[in-house]
Amino acid sequence: MKDLEISCLAIGEVKLIKPPRFGDSRGWLFETWNHRTFAASGIDTDFVQDNASFSRLRGTIRGLHYQTAPRAQAKLVRTVRGSIFDVAVDLRRSSPTFGRFASATLTAEGGEQMFVPSGFAHGFCTLEPDTEVAYKISDFYAPEHEAGIAWNDPEIGVDWPLEGADPILSEKDARLPRLADARLDP
Question: Which amino acids are annotated catalytic?
């Protein structure tokens, strides 16, 4: 049995994961989550909910979203169809990487996944039309703890791959505050 291929991104707690695929003339199969295998690789998280999103157009940005304590969420994100530029921003005030981000491209074809620990904001930009994203989360949705940061906060400095186009945003995401004004855990 092949092992998970896990690499740390710019912020070590954020990880890019490439599960082994087993293929033949029919196609392929891979485990997107196996608690025992992931725990042996240092990701020992209990996920309680699966979410999915569909974005019709390229350049759709969703995020940067998070939940505050005690309902903070870790996420395991993958693309089911299409591809995304995935981003995690460190919101832990005591961290030496506070306000910095890690990013990776996740594709349905490649099967890459990003592990985003609790204490991070998460968002993504679709790189092609009709993109579907699936993700596991470690705590249930709690509207009273829901928060977010502006996708284009210059203090964070994410270089979104929009190729000069305007992003497609929800009204809610278009109104998110900058990191300096965001509701963060102490």
Answer: 65, 135
